[in-house]
Structures are given as C-alpha cells and as structure tokens.
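Long-time lurker. I teach an intro course on protein structure, and each term I like to show students one example going from raw sequence to a predicted 3D structure in token notation. This year I'd like something fresh instead of my usual example. Would anyone be willing to generate the tokens for the chain below so I can use it in lecture? Attribution to the forum is fine with me.
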Amino acid sequence: MQMKLKLKHIILLSVFIIGIAKSYVFYIEKNVASLKKQVNARKKNINLLKVEWTYLNQNSRLQKLAKLCLPTWRPIEPKQMKDVQKIKAGFAHVEQIEKEERDRLEKEERERKQRKKYENKSIQNAQKKKQTLKEKNDQKTNIAEQKKQQQAKVSALNKGR
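-- Reply from a regular --
Happy to contribute to a lecture. Here you go:
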C-alpha cells in the first residue's frame, strides 16, 4: 500500500516537473524567435546603411560636389589666423552672460525654497490654530456635559427629597 502511494507521488511529481520543463522550453523558444527577428531586422538596417554609405562615397558624386563647392573656397590667409587669447577675450561676454544666468537661477531656487518654507510654516500654523480651536471646543463641550451631569444629579437629589 505504501509502495503504491510513493509510486503515485513520484509519478505525479515527474509529470509536474515535465510540465514545468515544457513550459520553460516554450518560453525560451519564444524568446529565441524574438531575438532572431531582432537580429534579422538589424542586419537589414546595417545593409541599408552600407548601401547609403557606398552611395555617399561614390567618386563621381564626390567629384561633382567638389566642383560645385571647392571653387568658392580659398586658402587660409595669415590675417585669418587669431591668437587663442584674443578668441577667449571675444567670448568673455558669453561667460558673463552664463554667470548671470547661473546667479539668476540660484536666486530663483533660493526664493522658491523660502516660499516653500513659508508655505509649510503657514500650513503648520493653520493646523496648530485648528487643533487649538478644536481642543477649546472639546473643552467647552466637556464642561457643558459636566454641567448637565451635575444639574441632572442635583435635580435627581431634589426629586428624592
């Protein structure tokens, strides 16, 4: 009897494991197919780029472009050469503008933080006031209830006399 029970358990466990293995194999095959599609799409993309590169580098095309553009180009003349320090000096105003922009952004950030801090304090103060008013109202309510209870006791005592 126990032998049959153990055999049944082993068979059930084996079937379960085989089922899991099949589903895992199916999942892997699905992923492999997806990856193959991606590889093929990228290969096509690479081939298109190679064709385009070949077209762009054709000698005849480059010669036509050179004839169109190069005649208007002239050699660099010595007077076109600049000292690096002069170039930097020419961009000094850009650095000043960038510094002013950074300062403005920092100031706006500080102001935003101050506004947020003030808003938080205002909210906290409003919450404290609300809590204080609630506590006062609760106290008044408790006092009123105590008075009612005392009056009820007094009236009960008066009736008992």
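Some talking points for your students: The helical segments are 2-56, 59-69, 84-90, 92-160. The chain has a mean pLDDT of 86.
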